[in-house]
Amino acid sequence: MKVLVINAGSSSLKYQLIDMTDESVLAKGNCERIGTDGSFIGFKTNDGQKIERKTEMKNHTQAFRAVKEALLDKEYGAITDLSEVTAIGHRIVQGGAYFDRSVLIDADVHAKIEELSPLAPLHNPAHLQGIDACTEVFGTEIPQVAVFDTAFHQTMPEKAFMYAVPYEYYEKYGVRKYGFHGTSHRYVSAKMAELLGRPIEETKIITCHIGNGSSITAVDGGKVIDTTMGLTPLGGFMMGTRSGSLDPSVVTFIGEKEGMTMAEASEMLNKKSGLLGVSGVSSDDRDVTAAEKEGNHRAKLAHEMLYYQIAQYIGSYYVALGGCDAIVFTAGLGENQPCLREGVCNYLECLGVKLDKEVNNNTIHGRQGTLTAPDSKIRVELIATDEEMVIARDTRDIVAAL
Predict the structure, then answer these.
(1) For residue 148, pLDDT beyond 90
(2) Which residue in 138, 299, 343, 378 has a CA-CA distance of 20 to 30 Å to 193?
(3) What whole-number distance in Å separates Cα of residue 40 and Cα of residue 58?
């Protein structure tokens, strides 16, 4: 079985073709600048070559045609006929309370994803465009599966997902914590249980997905009991351009002083805050790190705030879990910034965490490894996430059961 995994954004589309007989990646690539000038598709060949082609992509349908051409390319393609693609799996950001697992996409599922668009206005509409474009290009006979970022978090108890606002807003609008990055947290928590050599039902794990967008999740016995992101991906700790959670009066105070509309306040919190807002340098941690090395105080402050906030959430989840067997770092910064992991773990020494600094410094670029000393009371692990593989496996299982 060959599964095509799709992650459609508002102006981009990422894809992987995976052979599920041995879970090997046959092809992968991305379409960028969809709907704007200068659109292009980039992809890797089987022998590791990187190819980039400029092509007009006014919409996602044209982007899928570019994907089809890349997959069928006589020189670089991975298949000779579209019939070799057995099924298509889509990453869907917001599944609300409707979906606690991955599902086969039909008219009802399509309608619910659309209904939930107000909760993820930048993501769900793009996912629907991806689903519709896929149907148009690949036909209706190839089954499509939706894998939701929010599904893994649906085990949270009410005390964790409810907000202390009038209950009617939960009843009328579904205002509650949903959480995100669920496929990543699900993958690395399962992998950590394997590494511990125990059934996941017997583990307490804190997973830290740290990238430009970030979240931390408390996983008790394989089930989520709490996570940092909330109604939207803005919740939790500071990120590349997002503020994370803060005193709501900060928003109303600044809004009144600056004469901001609610839309402008949302823009400020989502796109002008976080590392960018504090450092004044960039939302890219590599640039902030370089500025800190040059003595930039605000860049250093941004990092100190980030490490402190991450450690705070880990500490609170240690309490919520009633202890912890392992802490996992994953995603872009979690996998590639040893100084971040060290900065966080320095706060966790009171919990018995003993970081092996040499191992930590040498474990980057997707390398998996145990970052703590043998006598550390909590094991800290770096695990490279693989959300696409989770999507592919769910798609395989659902289609195989048809």
Answers:
(1) yes
(2) 343
(3) 11
Which of helix, strand or coil describes residue 206?
strand
| Residue listed under structure tokens 């969809």 | 34
Q: What domains lie within the chain, and their CATH numbers?
A: 2-148 (3.30.420.40), 197-387 (3.30.420.40)
Catalytic residues: 149
Return the structure tokens found at 215. Answer: 């979240």
Q: What is the pLDDT of residue 272?
A: 95
Name the nearest CA neighbour of 114 among 129, 99, 134, 97. 129
At position 310, the amino acid (one-letter code) is I
Six-digit token string for 314: 């880990």
Please count the CA atoms within 13 angstroms of the CA of 17 that sit on its side-chain side: 21
In angstroms, the CA 387 to CA 185 distance is: 9
Query: pLDDT tens for residues 288-339?
Result: 999 999 999 999 999 999 999 999 999 999 999 999 999 999 998 999 999 9
Nearest to residue 185, comparing CAs of 158, 161, 154? 154
